[in-house]
Amino acid sequence: MTPHRVPADPAKGAAVKAADRAHVFHSWSAQELIDPLAVAGAEGVHFWDYDGNRYLDFTSGLVYTNIGYQHPKVVAAVQEQAAKMTTFAPAFAIDVRSEAARLVAERTPGDLDKIFFTNGGAEAVENAARMARLHTGRPKILSAFRSYHGATSTAINLTGDPRRWASDTATSGVVRFWAPFLYRSAFYATTEAEECERALAHLEDTIAFEGPASIAAIILETVPGTAGIMVPPAGYLAGVREICDRYGIVFILDEVMSGFGRTGEWFAADHADVVPDLLTFAKGVNSGYVPLGGVAISPAIAETFARRPYPGGLTYSGHPLACAAAVATINVMEEEGVVAHAARLGTDVFGPALREIAARHPSVGEVRGLGAFWALDLVRNQETREPLVPYNATGEANAPMAAFAAACKSTGLWPFVNMNRTHVVPACNITAEEAKEGLTLLDEALSVADEHVA
Ligand code: PLP
To answer: How far is CA 92 from CA 89, 136, 180, 317, 318, in A?
Structure first.
């Protein structure tokens, strides 16, 4: 298959690209080694370039357009808010900010009823860490090796993945541990129950040897996202909650990627019935139409700052345009049943189809996920589970994954690729037909990955 064709304007595309190359400094990139696609437009689960190629987006941007691109009701809400009040400083009570906070608080688990707004996920993590340290008076935070928490100073140090290395001087007060991941178990476990028990024992040991009274918080992505979509085994999150309670440690769940319907619940914590002390969110809260993130705060931590000022803030905290987008997004998700739809996509479409695809391809080592949140772990050998490319591979060593990604794009599917994995993370309101169409293209492209099986 080749990409669906739409009207082209190559001259405009060339101008967009030239200005980008001249002036835009891109994230995470060696600037001269990248070749960003010039995008002309986007709608729903599709976007298109200036050469007339339309792509089915299996990435939701960076896993954030949970309701797809250009939802007319959210676009209209942003336009209406712009006409009414584009901006106002954070110290004031503003109708749309109050409403966004109410709608978020009503959906976050348990009694997380106070919302501190930020401009994105990293700032949410940054502030959650600060709140935990001030609340407990303790310095250290424990985080998982297989994790991503953002790119600002504390958030990048809390991050486990290699993007941390360049910014990590080992002075950030972060201690890392292994969270459960049966397929690549750090504990030689052979069942989910064993993995859960051993991961909890390892966490307890880490706390005992670090000194419980020095630990402010444990932060976990409820379902780790960029690091590989590892749904935690039954009992793990409840076990961490119990450990935190026993030692007076703040439990932070990072739901920046897993929140707002992605897993088929409003928050992934709902699957485990666990309530953290702090919950960070961003991305899906308004599908990224205007930058917004935040921290949902427990009564006990809110009480710490009831009569003592919270030493943190942002000029754009609770920006009216971003809050209007959040109000409209949450209302749209309710009206259109997006969360239940994502759950059904997981049980009825992605789960069965991806397992079927995996059975046909020797390069697929494991399929895991739920809702609209799936990973294929690609391997050179299903027996040894050797990853298709080495950890953090670049250049020639990463060629098999690059070839797989190129094969997807040549069919009109835009894939999410990270190390030896591809993630199936489209908008949560993708139709079953669109999802199946993308899965057919994925199936086709996986034959390229199969060529690298040893
Ligand atoms: N936390 C998690 C779990 C994320 O996936 C991300 C981004 O991918 C972040 C935090 C950082 O969010 P942002 O890029 O909005 O700063």
So the answer is: 6, 29, 43, 11, 10
Which is the CATH superfamily of the domain at 4-67+337-450?
Aspartate Aminotransferase, domain 1 (3.90.1150.10)
Residue 333: its pLDDT value, please? 98
Q: Rg for the chain (alpha carbons), in Å?
A: 22
Where exactly does CATH 3.40.640.10 map onto the chain? Answer: 72-335
User: How many angstroms does the Cα of residue 226 sit away from the middle of ligand 1?
Assistant: 9
Other C-beta atoms within 10 Å of 103: how many? 19
- Whether 148 is in the pocket of ligand 1, judged by its Cβ within 6 Å, is yes
> Quick one: pLDDT at residue 124?
98
Does the C-beta of 294 come closer than 6 Å to ligand 1? Answer: no
Residue 121 CA, ligand 1 centroid: distance in Å: 4
- Please name the residues in contact with 84: beta carbons below 8 A apart, sequence gap of 6 or more: none
Angle between helices 351-360 and 432-450 (to 10 degrees): 20
Expressed in angstroms and rounded, the spacing between residue 149 Cα and the centre of ligand 1 is: 5
User: Could you tell me how far CA 339 lies from the centroid of its own chain?
Assistant: 16
Tokens 């049943």, residue? 337
Q: Mean pLDDT, consecutive 10-residue segments, the chain of 454 residues?
A: 86 98 97 97 98 98 98 98 98 98 98 98 98 98 98 97 94 97 98 98 98 98 98 98 98 98 98 98 98 98 98 98 99 98 98 98 98 98 97 95 98 98 98 98 98 95
Q: Give the Cα separation of 379 and 387 in Å (integer).
A: 4
- For the chain, residues classed under CATH 3.90.1150.10 are 4-67+337-450
Q: What is the pLDDT of residue 310?
A: 98
Percent helix, strand, coil in the chain, to 5, is 45, 15, 40
Ligand 1 close to Cβ of residue 255 (< 6 A): no
pLDDT value, residue 141: 98
Classify domain 72-335 at the CATH topology level.
Aspartate Aminotransferase; domain 2 (3.40.640)
Instruction: Give the span between the Cα atoms of 101 and 117, in whole angstroms.
Output: 8
